[in-house]
Amino acid sequence: MTSQPAVDSVLHLDSISVDFGQVRVLDDISLTVRRGEVVGVVGESGSGKTTLARTVLRAVAPAEGRVNVAGRDVTKLRGGALRAWRRSGAVQYVFQDPLRSLDPGVAVADSIVEGLRIAKVPPADAARRRAAALEAVGLDEDLIARLPSGLSGGQRQRAAIARALVVEPQLLVLDEPVSALDAASRDRVVQALIALRDQRGSDLAMLVISHDIGSLAAMSDRLVVLNRGRIVEDGPTRRVVAQPEHPYTRRLIDSVPLIHTPSANRP
C-alpha cells in the first residue's frame, strides 16, 4: 500500500527497495524529510547509506517504491526529463570529497557560480547569491580567488556547500561531509551546517548521511538508523541518543565517548 507525502514534505520515500544484481541493498525504506528539517542517516559501512542518497538523486533507480521530491513523483523519470529535473536545482548533492565538485584547475569563485552561469543567471545576481552562500557557511570571500588546492580540506568542503546553496535548493543531500577531515576542520563544517540550519529555517531541508553519529547528533533534528539496508530506528535525535530502542543503535552510541545533541530551541 502506497503512502502520500505530507503537505510540508520536501522528500518522501515510499517503500523503496534497491537491488544490485541479486543483492538487495535497500529493503522497504520509507522516509520523509519536512521543510526546514535536518535528518541524519547513520550506519556502518555497507549499511546502504550512500545508495539511499543516490536513490534520492535518481542516480540509482529503485526496484520497488516511489521517490517524491518537492511534491513531484520522480521515480520513473528518464532521459531528458530526468536531466531537466536535476538541473532545476530542487535537490543539491555535496560529496564526501569536495574535489569531486570543485574543478582543481578553476578558481573556487568560478566553481561556486558555475551552475548559475549554465542557467544564464545575470552576473550581478550570481555575485549576490555567491556572497550570501559564503556568508552562510562562514567562508572568507578573499579565499575564493584561489584554486581548490590553496584551501584547507574544511574550507574546500564549505566551498562545496556554498556551491550547492547558490542555486537555492529545497533539499541538500550531504554524503559523509566531514569524514575526510581532521578534527578541527570537522568541527568547523559541523558548526557551519548548524548555522545554516538555523538561518535558513523552512527554506532548506537537509539529509545528512554519515557513519559519525556524534556529528549527526550535533546538527540533526531526527536520526534514522540504517542497518543492512533496513531502517531499524527513526526518531527525534534527543530521544534516539538518550533512549535508543534498537540494540544496533545502542552499539553505535556506545562507540562514541561524548555526544552533543542539538540546541534546545529546536523541536
UniProtKB/TrEMBL annotation:
Q: Known Gene3D superfamilies for this protein? A: P-loop containing nucleotide triphosphate hydrolases
Keyword hit for Transport: yes
Domain (ABC transporter): give its ranges.
11-253
Pfam families, sorted: ABC_tran, oligo_HPY
In its keyword annotation, does this UniProt entry include Transport?
yes
**Keyword annotations:** ATP-binding, Nucleotide-binding, Transport
Domain of life, per lineage: Bacteria
Q: Which family does it belong to?
A: Belongs to the ABC transporter superfamily.
Protein name per UniProt: ABC-type glutathione transport system ATPase component
| Species in which this protein is naturally found | Microbacterium murale
